[in-house]
């Protein structure tokens, strides 16, 4: 089939006297005049887009004097003399010289126009997100402009909606409710939540005192307010008061309870009752709030916007562009040189090039070598022809390059640098023209399986002065001049799929007859194969309609079976997505990882998430969704739009999105991408900009203070006390006091911090000197808020582990199993900086063992400590139950996640009996070792100390059986949600955590959750691990003893 030119117009090349390329050459010399008076002459390709030329010129001008006087590249636009003799500004830098038709080969750089208010706002935003003045962009200016224009339209629509909001809607935006998806209570938990017919007891606080109030768990918030007002009137013999004057607020948190949800549906109420605690509310006069609220709150709207059509690139195409499907010739490129190589003369290198779709090679890699380095460069003119036609290139294909050094004696090859670039640009046009690509240095902890690094991003290393440069040429394969080869628009893709559909009843068609034997093979391939082999893929693709009908959640397996180097198969898959049922969250997240770069697939995943996820759910998975942005082929993506849209409509989501993006803007691989999203958010949310700026200023003060403490000698007690006095003296300074008072915590907008309680602030003795800070609660009836500030430790692994623990807790809760987990808050705010919620009062196992003044082998210490805290038998029994449940939860969680370095200083216990773990520096089976011997020689920590508490000093041995049954039940529940847990880790492969730098690291979950086994086999597997942990408890006790000796 021949695919059409997008219009029948014949567009020949038009050239003007004075700017025509000489002879057959496509290059000519153009002068570029800068505002500082520098003139840079440059040979440029007549058909290269101006944004590419701009990047080359900008790099060259920095070799001239006065370059430091220039602003950012993006701050300048081009002025040229057009054919009418008039000055004209270039508004679309994706145009080339042939399209612009300048009268003279001279272009002038001028500052882009902008009003002072906009400049001031831009400066505030850049200061907040950490954008320097002279940073190069890692994407071309035209693509950045396209992103801004696309997002600006969406953001403006939301801004207009904000202006028309009612008082309630504005209040909801600042203080969104946290509710469960249903008001029902799992049957297994009904016994733990006392739903007395007379009602549940809550604490209601007024200005003068707190009252006990009994309410029905299905009462609406407004009914609770009315009951509280009546109770107060009867107690104080007051005259009638209007309940509409009040709104419920959670004591100690900046959280409000409103809307027509039953009170039991609010997460705060539900979790309080689960813990046998009375929910505590404060009656707040609406007139005292910064925002006014309406008299009768109603349920917040949950309807989602209607999904847009699949993206269609035709709007950005010229009328003479040609569809790539018409070009059957092999895809080829030209290597023109390698420069600025950081190796000594005479060194030998080898260059590899490959075409990839996700991690799948579309054809064999090509190599050029051995090349010899001379004067930091390799002169090479070599064409590369790949084993795939231009027609079969998928639109998310990326061209990957890697340079290896060759050892002089061993001939061993080591990766030194790499770079990836999309084959199609952001307008779906096949790349062409000369490109200078700055390479990334090798910083991976593991050698890639292939020579190239397809899992690396497509951003260029524009911020490094020492980057090696690879110069390549994308040839104009069809000699189109000003026209382009383009990927077909969506309607042509569907047309192609229709024309190449298998005949009715034939293999691969929707109505093919499938035998029982084929169904059994399909079941084996879908559910019991860790890896798909070619015959598995062929079977799944053949039966793709059967998978859609019977196993729609296995879409990822179908996508893995597509031949992405066949445009007809890609078209068929695109069409199939149109009729594929929406996926549940577990499986929609799966197809957002690096394996699935196709923009139609990713759009389908986002629409599924948008339909399924509440704002609370988005918050829960925000960590992974932000990381998934790194797998996008271009700056604009539906995932970025989805996150921005949700954040702009919910300030709590905006808070989390901001800090997850802001904490990585130091990383040059994502600086441009993440900064653009942040700029869009902050530009359209000036109120939140002020709040976040205050938090950033507070963090700067804490960083400075911590740096001061780090430089202080604290070898003995006297020096530590002097350092503490110095620290408190600094905190008493007016600038520090003002900056650290009356702000919302970066950890959570629910924490409103009043003033620092300086006398309770101190630093820890560990190497990085973390700051232990105590704030008075802005809510006068709330408890103090304690936060630890860390500087010098990478908190990303802790963040991920704690998030997964929270997800596990939610999974168990949904199944009616409450294991009293304590996933405290943790937030990275910058490179090796962040905050951790302090859980108090709690003691480490080591402290309790030292209190008992016995050895680490004495199993009685924990139980005796609990007996001291709970003199009453009933209270002690409740504490033991709390211990049993939480211990079971952490035993299973630490086993599944392979959490290592467990000792008695990172296992803590609260006086309530709740056990929890802290410090997650080792996971996914990366256990500490000494002299090549692993310290952890048991699957999880289950010592005789724990069993002694669980059995109440060996007096109730049946508790031991119940504990094991609880562990087994918890394990099987998690195993059923293996796809979700696996997806959450696979989406984090790009985050830079050393122990999760490869997909192989995430496969550790296969070892622990054994998804390929039947449930019966899996249970037997876990029972073996449980017995191993129990029998090996003496080994753990030895570890505890060694740790205490070394303290």
Automatic annotation (TrEMBL):
Domain called PIK helical: residue spans: 500-684
EC number: 2.7.1.137
C2 PI3K-type domain mapped to chain residues: 327-475
Gene Ontology MF terms in the entry: 1-phosphatidylinositol-3-kinase activity; 1-phosphatidylinositol-4-phosphate 3-kinase activity; ATP binding
Catalytic EC class: transferase
GO-annotated cellular components: cytoplasm; phosphatidylinositol 3-kinase complex; plasma membrane
Keyword Kinase: yes
Gene Ontology annotations of biological process type: bleb assembly; cell migration; phosphatidylinositol 3-kinase/protein kinase B signal transduction; phosphatidylinositol-mediated signaling; regulation of chemotaxis
Swiss-Prot/TrEMBL catalytic activity: a 1,2-diacyl-sn-glycero-3-phospho-(1D-myo-inositol) + ATP = a 1,2-diacyl-sn-glycero-3-phospho-(1D-myo-inositol-3-phosphate) + ADP + H(+)
Keywords for the protein's UniProt record, in alphabetical order: ATP-binding, Kinase, Nucleotide-binding, Transferase
Start and end residues of each PI3K-RBD domain: 197-285
Domain PI3K/PI4K catalytic residue range list: 757-1034
Domain PI3K-ABD: 24-113
Annotated InterPro entries: ARM-type_fold (IPR016024), C2_domain_sf (IPR035892), Kinase-like_dom_sf (IPR011009), PI3/4_kinase (IPR015433), PI3/4_kinase_cat_dom (IPR000403), PI3/4_kinase_cat_sf (IPR036940), PI3/4_kinase_CS (IPR018936), PI3K-type_C2_dom (IPR002420)
SMART domains per record: PI3K_p85B, PI3K_rbd, PI3Ka, PI3Kc
PANTHER family, per database record: PHOSPHATIDYLINOSITOL KINASE, PI-3 KINASE
Family label: Belongs to the PI3/PI4-kinase family.
Name of the featured protein: phosphatidylinositol 3-kinase
Annotated organism of origin: Elysia crispata (lettuce slug)
